[in-house]
Amino acid sequence: MSRALYIGRFQPFHNGHLHAVKWILEREDELVLGIGSAQYSHTWRNPFTVGERYLMIWQTLKAEGLLNRVLITAIPDTDTRHSTWVSVVKTYSPPFDSAYTNDPLSRLLFREAGIKVYSIPFYERDKYEATLIRKLIAEGKDEWKKLVPPPVAHILVKIGGVDRLKEIYRYSR
Question: What is the distance between the alpha carbons of residues 2 and 30, in angstroms, rounded to a whole number?
């Protein structure tokens, strides 16, 4: 049985992420979905808490019938101690055989630790990009709701994430 790791900040979890999860599960038996930068929230780059992101992902995977094949975990950053990052990932994660990432630094660190690394094909990257989605939300443009799974749109409204992003956007520009 194979189990792979896919790490992202998921700020927010969008349809491109969901497409990546499904693509990886076509190749692997199980997936560990690592919520990266777990300690950050309430900033433009990382507006949502790890608990909020966990809920977005869990509700989406539940709606998609994928919870039986995906384990979700929170993984903090190590600041500038890149050489220890893979050890931190392994500590916070169930065991995995390989990693899927397009991030160059993550690829390097996993490879140096002897872990097989695979790239993920981008799915309509011009549309499914978290920075763009956050900007659409902050500017009050409803088209963002089509770019995230329905459970994520519901959660963002329910937790006050839309208003939070608008406020963060105002003071971060």
Answer: 6
Contact 148, 12 (CB under 8 A): yes
The residues near 107 (Cβ < 8 Å, ≥ 6 apart) are 101, 117, 119
* CATH class of the structural domain 3-172: alpha beta
48-86, pLDDT tens digit by residue? Answer: 999 999 999 999 999 999 999 999 999 999 877 788 999
The CA-atom distances, in angstroms, between 136 and each of 78, 109, 125, 127, 145 are 30, 33, 15, 11, 9
Quote the tokens at residue 117: 């690394």
Residue carrying structure tokens 């003071």: 171
Residue 165 Cα to chain centre, angstroms:
17
Whether 17 and 129 have beta carbons less than 8 Å apart is answered as: no
Q: Cα(62)–Cα(50) distance, rounded to whole angstroms?
A: 18
Q: Is the peptide bond before 12 cis (omega within 30 degrees of 0)?
A: yes
